[in-house]
Design goal:
single chain; mainly beta; seven-stranded antiparallel β-sheet; four-stranded antiparallel β-sheet; 1 helix; Adenovirus Type 2 Hexon, domain 4
C-alpha cells in the first residue's frame, strides 16, 4: 500500500486535501476489462472492438500513464502501423467512457484517430521506433504520461466508467501488440 495525498472535489464546490491508501496498478487493457486473458491486440477488429480496463464498483483507478507496445517484422516505418505495410484505414481511438462505452466522457485523441506508428508521438511525445539490426523483429514503444498534459485520469467504478481503446481495423499479422495502464487503485466508500 502507498499513502497518496490528493486534492478531491468535495460536494462539487472546492478542492480539499485528502490522504488515502492506494495500491499500485499495472493492468493490461483487455476485451472484458478485468483480466489479461485477451490483452493481445492482433486480430481483425474491422467491426470496431474495445480493449478496456474497468475498476470494480468500490474502486477508482488513477491512471498516471499508458504504455503501448507494438512488435512486428523487421523494417517498421513511421508512416505504417506495425509492419503492416500501410497506415490503418480507420485508426485507433483512446477514450474515457461511461455505461460500457455508451457515453464518452473524454476523447483523448480529440476525434483524430491514430493510423500509423509515428502518429502516437502526436499525442504522447514519448514514442520510439526501435529497429533490430539483422532479421529480428522491430518494435514501437510509447509512454503516454497523462499528468504531463495536466493531471492523471480518474476512472470511477461506482459511476460505471472505464478507460478504453477502440480498434477499427484488421491488425492480423502483428507479432505482439498490448496496451498497459499504470497508476493507483483507490478504494471508495459505499457511504
Amino acid at each position: 500500500m502507498k499513502r497518496l495525498s490528493l486534492m478531491v472535489l468535495a460536494l462539487g464546490l472546492a478542492l480539499l486535501p485528502c490522504d488515502v491508501d492506494a495500491e499500485q496498478l499495472y493492468r493490461y487493457l483487455s476485451l472484458d476489462g478485468l483480466t489479461t486473458d485477451s490483452c493481445q491486440v492482433r486480430s481483425d477488429y474491422s467491426s470496431s472492438t474495445a480493449f478496456k480496463v474497468t475498476p470494480g464498483p468500490t474502486e477508482v483507478f488513477v491512471l498516471e500513464r499508458m504504455i503501448v507496445y507494438i512488435e512486428d517484422g523487421n523494417g517498421m516505418q513511421f508512416e505504417e502501423y506495425g509492419n503492416l505495410n500501410s497506415a490503418l484505414t480507420n485508426g485507433i481511438t483512446v477514450l474515457h467512457t461511461q455505461d460500457d462505452g455508451a457515453s464518452t466522457l473524454l476523447d483523448l485523441t480529440n476525434g483524430i484517430t491514430i493510423k500509423s506508428n509515428g502518429q502516437w508521438a502526436r499525442l504522447c511525445y514519448d514514442m520510439d521506433l526501435k529497429e533490430e539490426p539483422g532479421a529480428g523483429d522491430d518494435c514501437v514503444v510509447v509512454r503516454w504520461t497523462f499528468g504531463a498534459a495536466g493531471e492523471a485520469l480518474y476512472i470511477r467504478g461506482d459511476r460505471d466508467e472505464d478507460f478504453r481503446i477502440l480498434v477499427h481495423d484488421d491488425l492480423t499479422g502483428l507479432t505482439e501488440h498490448t496496451f498497459m495502464v499504470q497508476g493507483y487503485v483507490i478504494p471508495v466508500s459505499s457511504n
